[in-house]
Design goal:
Layout: H1 12-17, H2 21-32, H3 40-49, H4 57-64, E1 68-75, E2 78-86, H5 88-93, H6 100-107, H7 119-122, E3 126-130, E4 145-149, H8 150-161, H9 167-174, H10 179-189, E5 195-196, H11 197-204, H12 213-222, E6 226-232, E7 240-247, H13 255-272
Antiparallel strand pairs: 1-2, 3-4, 5-7, 6-7
Helix pairs in contact: 2-4, 9-10, 10-11, 10-12
């Protein structure tokens, strides 16, 4: 069982989970009445007093049970509802809860960034996708959020599930500060396999989004790493690129400084190299 605390009744986290105002009101009542859970009649009276007359108690409880473990306890005076914690599926997914403001910010582009479909033109529903999934260390920072349609969202989840057996290694690789090291550790963890570039891009962006992760891959050679690459055709609309590790090297104490120093040496070598005479073969 997770020890993740339940949200406070007036918190932004609860508002993000429950768009239904009546459900939030009843959640607050259940929080306050943990030692003396309310009956269905008491919840009904409470809703009426809160100007929510006509709202079905059963419907509100069903809404709350989407996220919370609410037990029905039968006593002499009727059935009472006890708030016990999160429901198991919430604990299993580990998906962070987004505030309404953060969710609106993520969906602001108004179309799926992967296939380009939009709710207005194509009737699709947009989901907020964490580019780096939470099980690999992804956060809810704005740069890690993007809109995907349901098909692309579900397709991505199914694709990532093919690497579920490597989740621990991938999370470890994604934990490092430097993108070059994140990529190298990923290749090392999957060194017997051809690793697709899109998976490398996800892990490379685990700490901060990388607009040019291919450059970070090339920089591995500067650090003494060797790898193979190949292009695959016929696997969709785009050509897919794969990488496989040949040889790893020890990480320098300062990766950025090592890459900068190597670039300076290369530039100095180019400047001192004798220029070829005109017409030389």
């Amino acid at each position: 069982m997770s020890h993740e605390p339940l949200p406070e009744p007036e918190s932004e986290q609860l508002a993000a989970l429950l768009g239904d105002g009546a459900a939030r009101l009843v959640y607050g009542l259940l929080c306050r009445r943990k030692s003396n859970p309310p009956t269905a009649d008491e919840i009904g009276y409470f809703l009426s007093a809160a100007a929510s007359a006509g709202t079905s108690t059963d419907r509100v409880i069903r809404n709350l049970r989407t996220h919370f473990d609410i037990a029905g306890i039968v006593r002499g005076d009727g059935e009472r509802y006890e708030l016990r914690g999160w429901v198991p599926h919430h604990l299993a997914t580990g998906v962070p809860v987004l505030s309404l403001r953060r969710r609106a910010q993520a969906l602001a582009p108004g179309l799926c960034v992967q296939c380009g479909k939009s709710p207005l033109k194509d009737g699709v529903r947009l989901e907020v996708d964490l580019m780096v999934p939470p099980e690999w260390g992804g956060t809810t920072d704005p740069e890690n959020l993007r809109p995907l349609c349901e098909d692309c969202f579900n397709g991505k989840r199914q694709y990532l599930e093919t690497y579920a057996s490597y989740s621990e290694q991938i999370r470890h690789a994604a934990s490092f500060d430097e993108p070059q090291r994140r990529i190298g550790e990923l290749l090392l963890a999957l060194q017997d396999e051809w690793v697709p570039s899109e998976l490398i891009g996800i892990v490379a962006s685990a700490r901060e989004f990388q607009t040019d992760y291919e450059r970070r891959i090339r920089e591995l050679r500067t650090l003494g790493w060797e790898y193979q690459s190949r292009r695959a055709y016929g696997e969709g609309a785009r050509v897919r690129v794969y990488y496989r590790l040949i040889r790893a090297a020890a990480w320098p104490e300062n990766i950025h400084a090592a890459i900068t120093a190597a670039a300076k040496r290369r530039k100095a070598d180019e400047e001192t190299r004798p220029a070829s005479s005109d017409g030389a073969q």
